[in-house]
Design goal:
The protein has 385 residues and is mainly beta. It is 14% helix and 47% strand. The protein has three domains: 15-150, Beta Barrel (Cathepsin D, subunit A, domain 1), CATH 2.40.70.10; 163-273, Acid Proteases (Cathepsin D, subunit A, domain 1, Beta Barrel); 303-382, Pdz3 Domain (Roll). It is globular and about 65 Å long.
């Protein structure tokens, strides 16, 4: 029998993918997708970050302790952009989604206090490869809905593009970036990163991706192990399959913990760019399908303040001020409490971050310092100018 006939017979025998659950998700700044589920017989609804950049599935350490789960240390290591550490696990737990109960998983334990503070939203865990390898997941950013399917034949809608990443436990695929020239290289497809691109610093040096006139801005981000100092710049064009983006903000980091494994891989594509597509994540067939959605033409975030802000004990607190940044020039100090921005007294850090993303704006920021109110005038830098 010919190979063609064998493949045809296999397709006939393979069942169609069956939807087992459909539910809404919450979206945070940077495009991060939060799924809501209960675990085992607990009625407490937990918040899980959907993360193609995670090689497993995990629970926050305080959440695991609150639920009374037994935790077992191991000698296995996990690496992140800001550190590495040994893994502990809790075994044999399952998730409950609407009308759908998962298989049991071994959850590794992590501390998500920092990322919870950064987003002002309790992160109870991360859903990555251990879950995704068993199901097909559709992510519709237009409707903010997720559909979960049992693996099988699935019809991809017209008007999109099929990516066929290289898989280990993580999906790596090729994209082209460039200023005067395009450089095609391999990137981690990372829905858990709330940025457009994160580039390996050595790759940037070796590739001459930027010219001498490029301006770089010191900033920071949160990752496994804590905070990480980064540089921020703009790249003229990005090609993602047949799709093209112009003037994309990119972050550059020193990969001291070998997360990217340069030169084999050169960086991360994150969800501030990926959220511009509706996705079908089909790990069983090693396919990720992308189709432009209504957010495809959204403006990129070109703002720069140099302020690190976190939600701590019901307050929005400035914890870090980059020297020479707009925040530093405005007179901000670590420990300042943000009370209001342009007379908006919101205590929602998502709202405050959105206000600070107003590139080129002059903002009136009311702060509390040593229990005294002060008005700061913040000129938000537009990194395109």
């Amino acid at each position: 029998m010919s190979k063609l006939l064998v493949n045809a017979q296999e397709n006939i025998d393979q069942p169609h993918a069956k939807m087992v659950s459909k539910f809404a998700f919450t979206q945070l700044t940077g495009g991060l997708v939060i799924l809501h589920a209960t675990i085992d017989t607990s009625s407490s609804v937990l918040n899980f970050l959907l993360d193609t950049g995670s090689g497993g599935i995990s629970l926050d350490s305080t959440t695991a302790k609150r639920l009374g789960f037994s935790i077992y240390p191991t000698e296995r290591m996990i690496r992140g952009i800001a550190g590495k550490r040994k893994l502990s696990f809790t075994y044999g737990h399952y998730l409950n989604f609407p009308e759908f109960v998962t298989d049991t998983f071994s959850f590794h334990i992590n501390n998500y206090d920092l990322i919870s503070s950064a987003y002002g939203y309790k992160i109870d865990g991360v859903i990555g490869y251990s879950f995704l390898r068993k199901y097909i997941v559709k992510v519709d950013y237009d409707m903010q809905m997720v559909e979960v399917y049992k693996p099988g034949i699935i019809k991809y809608p017209r008007g999109g593009h099929i990516l066929k990443p290289d898989f280990t436990t993580l999906p790596f695929t090729y994209f082209s970036l460039g200023n005067n020239k395009k450089i095609k290289s391999r990137y981690l497809f990372d829905m858990g990163a709330g940025l457009c691109f994160l580039l390996n610093k050595q790759f940037v040096k070796d590739s001459t991706l930027f010219n001498k006139r490029t301006k770089f801005y010191a900033t920071q981000a949160e990752g496994l192990g804590g905070k990480k100092t980064l540089e921020l710049a703009v790249i003229k064009n990005v090609s993602l399959g047949p799709y093209y983006f112009k003037d994309v903000p990119v972050y550059i980091f020193d990969d001291e913990f070998k997360v990217i494994s340069y030169p084999k891989n050169t960086g991360i594509i994150g969800n501030d760019l990926l959220r511009r597509f509706n996705l079908i994540i089909n790990y069983p067939e090693k396919i990720i399908y992308i189709k432009p959605n209504k957010k495809f033409v959204d403006a990129f975030d070109y703002s720069y303040t140099g302020l690190g802000i976190y939600y701590i004990e019901d307050k929005i607190i400035v914890t870090d001020v980059i020297k020479g940044s707009p925040g530093d020039k405005a007179g901000f100090e670590a420990g300042d409490i943000i009370v209001a921005i342009d007379n908006d007294y919101s205590t929602n850090i998502q709202t405050v971050k959105h206000a600070l993303q107003n590139a080129g704006a002059k903002l009136n920021v009311l702060i509390s310092r040593n229990e005294k109110l002060e008005m700061m005038i913040l000129d938000v830098k537009n990194i395109m100018h």
